[in-house]
Amino acid sequence: MEFETLVQSRRSVRGFRNEPVPRAVIEAIIESAKRAPSSMNTQPWHVHVLTGHPLEEVRRRNMEEMAGGARVKRDIISHGEYQGVHRTRQVDIAKKLFGAMGIARDDKPMRQDWVLRGFRQFDAPVSLVLTYDRVLDPGAVCHFDLGALCYGIVLAAWDRGLGSVINGQGIMRSDIVREVAGIPEDEVIMTCVAMGYPDDGFAANAVRSDREHNDEFVRYVGFAD
């Protein structure tokens, strides 16, 4: 698939078919994605691929802890709640998703159910947990590197018929993920990519988030025109 077409067609998938993903397919995805650039070729990343019982345990415990009011315990520093234009964009995509799913503004049980789905990594059959070497903290540069790897994974997966969603909610309790997946202490858990074959009948999968016009965030300096 041409790169521009691939980027334009890709979307976040929040509903997956109950169908396993072959290990060979995931290996091919990572083989492609690892060509992502990294600062001075440091390649600071690690990928922990979970499925089956370990993923179910992470899902269940993360959901139970967060639904029970436990505090967020992520390895990386959070910005806290979004404000201003960032909050507006967050609300806009939520409205689209709830509208597609027929969830009314005052339907608290269904809104809560949607939140729990996020804590369960949207019931995807595979989760790729992305980590980086702790010795590189504070990690602004390696965060950038992992972002490149992450996007490479998402595009390579889409090219092979797989959908994904980059899902920080699914690892709100990094301590649980570390314990279940056996992730060593010298790695920082950054995020995860929930992945599987898209369920075309799941309404939220058709939702596309809006993007600002280039004039809103791009400046051209030194061009004659």
In short:
This protein is an alpha+beta fold. It has 7 helices and 4 strands; from the N terminus they run H-H-E-H-H-H-E-H-E-H-E.
Given helix and strand content, the structural type is alpha+beta
Strand content: 5-15%
Measured as a percent range, the helix fraction is 40-55%
* Main β sheet profile: 4 strands, antiparallel
Keywords: Oxidoreductase
Family: Belongs to the nitroreductase family.
Pfam family, one: Nitroreductase
Domain Nitroreductase: 8-197
General description of the model:
This protein has 225 residues and is of the alpha+beta class. It has seven helices and four strands; from the N terminus they run ααβαααβαβαβ. It has a domain at 19-79 and 120-202: NADH Oxidase, CATH 3.40.109. The protein has a four-stranded antiparallel beta sheet, sandwiched between helices. Helix 2 (23-33) crosses helix 6 (140-159) and helix 3 packs antiparallel against helix 7. It has helices at 3-9, 23-33, 52-67, 84-101, 108-119, 140-159, 174-181, and strands spanning 45-50, 126-133, 163-166, 187-196.
